[in-house]
Structure formats: C-alpha cells, structure tokens
Amino acid sequence: MPKAKRSGKSKKFDYNQNRKKLKKKFIKKANPRIENTHVRNAWDNKKSMARNLQEMGLAFDPNQTVPITKSRLLGEDRETKAPARIVTKPYLLNQLEEEANRPVKDTKTLSADLIEYVQYMVREHKDNYKAMARDEKNYYQDTPKQIKRKINEYKRCHPDHFNNFMDSLAAPEPMVK
Q1: Residue 11 to residue 51: CA distance in whole angstroms
Q2: 78 by DSSP, 3-state: which?
Q3: What is the C-alpha to C-alpha distance for residues 59 and 142, in angstroms, rounded to an integer?
Q4: Do residues 114 and 152 touch, judged by C-beta distance below 8 A?
Q5: CB within 8 A of 103, min separation 6: which ones?
Q6: How many CB atoms lie within 10 A of CB 96?
Q7: Cα dihedral 20, 25, 30, 31 in deg (nearest 10)
Q8: pLDDT digit string, tens, across residues 85-113
Q9: Beta strands in 4-144 (DSSP E)
Q10: Residues 128, 140: Cα–Cα separation, whole Å
Q11: Is the four-CA dihedral 41, 30, 84, 64 of positive or negative sign?
Q12: Using N-to-C axis directions, what is the helix angle for 144-157 and 159-170, rounded to 10°?
C-alpha cells in the first residue's frame, strides 16, 4: 500500500523570490489606486471604504441610499427611510460636480491620408457623391454613402480646417499673365 503524502512538511525559505516585489504587490492589492484626484486627496487610509465614502457624501450602497417605495396589498404605499448621513467633506462634492459640468473636448482626429482623400474628392466633385464613388482615386471602392460619412466626419473633427479649405475653393484663382 502506498504511503500518504506528508502534509506537515516544513516550509523552506525561497531565496529566489524577490521580497520587495512581493510586498509592493501585496500593498497594491490591499490599497487599490483611486483614479480621481479629488477623492484620492480626501481619502483616509485608516478608515473603511464605507466610512470614507459616507464622509465625502458619496453612496457606498445604492440600495440604502435611495429610498424604495414598498407597495402593500391592503393600504397605501409606504416609503422606507434612508438613514441621515453626516457629510464632513462637502467641498469634495462641489469639486466633483464642477468637474462633471465641464464640457468634454472631442479628441477624435482623422489620419492625414483620410483628410487628403476627402479634400481631393471635394475639390474634384464638390458634393456629387456618385461621381466620387466612380473616381479612380477611390481605392477602397467606397460607396457614395461611405464617402459622405467620411466627409461629415472630417467636418465634425476639424470644423475650422474644413471651413478654411472650403473658403480656399470658393476664392477665385488669380490670373497669370
């Protein structure tokens, strides 16, 4: 009969394991990085997550924060009351609200090749999308709708660039003697 595996085997020290790296990994898991700078600055590592969020005026558990109306079979609807929370860091709510109300800048841009392609098509065919689709420079065999979509994308991403381009097309070329 085979012997049972020794479960009470004494642990040996692993000299190949980097202890500094292990400690950093453990700390990183224990305290995850908070992305928002305002919340990170107001965070207190000595307090629990629920306590920190409560002091900031943020919700830890949405089921407790938002009161739920319970309907009964007999009688009128009853509303459960959420416990009153004490907010000790109201400045954080103002900062978060201000940050959320800032307009977001559209950072999408187009490749130089696509801009050149769109400019060529508009320069040659104005707004005739069927002629653009038949053009020999239409290497990817875009349909008229696809070309129209690309032109609209160019207008949306680079409006002043497009307006300058259209103005340069509208201006009469100087006569050479």
Answers
A1: 39
A2: strand
A3: 50
A4: no
A5: none
A6: 16
A7: 90
A8: 788 898 999 999 999 999 988 778 899 99
A9: 69-70, 78-79
A10: 18
A11: positive
A12: 110
66 in Cβ contact with 82 (< 8 Å): yes
Strand (E) positions, the chain? Answer: 69-70, 78-79
Render pLDDT for 14-50 as a digit per residue (tens, 0 to 9). Answer: 999 999 999 998 888 887 788 999 999 999 988 888 8
Backbone angles phi, psi at 27, to 5 degrees: -65, -40
The torsion angles phi and psi of 113, rounded to 5 degrees, stand at -65, -45
Contact status, residue 71 vs residue 103, Cβ threshold 8 Å: no
Residue type, 143: T
Identify whether the C-beta of residue 42 lies closer than 8 Å to the C-beta of residue 49.
Answer: no
The model's pTM is 0.49
What values do phi and psi take at 2, rounded to 5?
Answer: -70, 155
- Position of tokens 């769109």? 118
As beta bridge partners, residue 70 has 78
